[in-house]
Specification:
- By secondary structure, the chain is an alpha/beta fold.
- It has a domain of 213 residues: 3-Layer(aba) Sandwich (Rossmann fold).
- 35% of the residues lie in helices and 13% in strands.
- The chain has 7 helices and 8 strands.
- An 8-stranded mixed β-sheet has the order 1-4-3-2-5-6-7-8, sandwiched between helices.
- The radius of gyration is 19 Å and the shape is globular.
- The structure holds NADP nicotinamide-adenine-dinucleotide phosphate.
- InterPro entries: NAD(P)-bd_dom_sf, SDR_fam, TR.
- Pfam families: adh_short_C2 (PF13561).
- It is found in: Plastid, Chloroplast.
- Keywords: Chloroplast, NADP, Oxidoreductase, Plastid.
Length: 305
């Protein structure tokens, strides 16, 4: 196994999770918050709403949306491997999951680095015996500034973290995805891949590229029964957007263009991702599903008529 791999102990009885005590959710901070309401234990062949027996890689699973996805997939029966750059935070997360009986392993990995992506996939291949049912490309970052002010380094950081990582991880995962009977790829895009958002030209371009790669791979890999989809969130309460949303005037503007009039929760994204991973969505491929409170379809809906 590659260095930097951490494993949790074998799962305890997951049914006992409902009564286990874990930290209370805080609005923008990640903690072990998910309790599986019910655990799907039957095989995918008999249960279209179960991920039992499936292997999954979720990048960036220690906080925010990625963390919610890890917990959602585990609750549905998958074995999950995740990664992050911060070793201490990864270890803490794995300890918390272990205490809750979640079957999660993790590796320290910066997905913007080609060699580290290769190491990550070598580890995943060894852990899951060359078969990967689910790849969730969750990692992404943002630098907000006018396009003309971008330095070459900033441009390169956004492109390598947000897009090149997705492209290369898909390439590396392909033999393992193809080795299963049915596999899925879900990438976390953004509404910025559809509409213009202030000072986000480069981040938007990377998300637009993910959207088109999703459509192309859906067609290219359909012959292998690999479905490829993306989920495009608007503002979700995570550490990434905590600072920008601390500005009350800005937050009010966000509410005013969001028909549902609120921010999203990470678990409202992870449920959409999980659906796209389930056998229940077996005829859906090449789609980018917005999880955005209606923001991307909003033309003119004044809040005060
Ligand atoms: N939050 C929103 O409002 C929003 C809206 C639209 C789209 N999205 C998209 O949703 C995805 C997740 O965002 P989030 O808000 O959940 O982010 P977040 O709260 O900042 O969490 C990011 C996670 O990814 C890991 N990570 C970051 N960079 C990494 C790298 N280079 N290599 C490996 N791991 C890395 C982080 O751990 P380490 O820091 O330890 O590496 C952490 O676990 C991103 O693709 C983002 O673009 C978010």
């Amino acid at each position: 196994m590659a260095s930097g791999l951490y494993t949790t102990n074998p799962p305890q009885n997951l049914h006992s999770l409902a009564s286990s005590s874990s930290p209370k959710p805080q609005s923008f901070k990640s903690s072990v918050t998910v309790r599986c309401a019910s655990i799907a234990t039957s095989s995918p062949a008999t249960n279209r709403w179960s991920l039992h027996g499936m292997s999954a890689l979720v990048t960036g699973g220690t906080r925010g949306i990625g963390r919610a996805i890890v917990e959602e997939l585990v609750c549905l029966g998958a074995k999950v491997h995740t990664c992050a750059r911060n070793e201490t935070e990864l270890e803490e997360s794995l300890r918390g999951w272990n205490r809750s009986g979640f079957q999660v392993d993790g590796s320290v990995c910066d997905v913007s680095d080609r060699a580290q992506r290769q190491n990550l996939m070598d580890t995943v291949s060894s852990l899951f015996h060359g078969k990967l049912h689910i790849l969730v490309n969750n990692v992404g970052t943002n630098i907000r500034k006018p396009m003309v002010d971008f330095t070459p380094e900033e441009f390169s950081t956004l492109v390598s973290t947000n897009f090149e990582s997705v492209f290369h991880l898909c390439q590396l995962a392909y033999p393992m995805l193809r080795a299963t009977e049915a596999a899925t790829v879900v990438s976390i895009s953004s509404v910025s891949g559809f509409v213009s958002l202030k000072n986000m030209s480069v981040q938007s371009a990377t998300k637009g590229a993910i959207n088109q790669l999703t459509r192309n791979l859906a067609c290219e890999w359909a012959k292998d029964n690999i479905r490829v989809n993306a989920v495009a969130p608007w503002y979700i309460k995570t550490s990434m957007v905590e600072q920008v949303l601390s500005n009350k005037d800005y937050l009010d503007e966000v509410y005013s263009v969001t028909p549902l009039g609120r921010l999203g929760e990470p678990k409202e994204v992870s449920s959409a991702v999980a659906f796209l991973c389930l056998p229940a969505s077996s005829y859906i491929t090449g789609q980018i599903i917005c999880v955005d409170g209606g923001m991307s379809i909003n033309g003119f809906s004044p809040r005060h008529d």
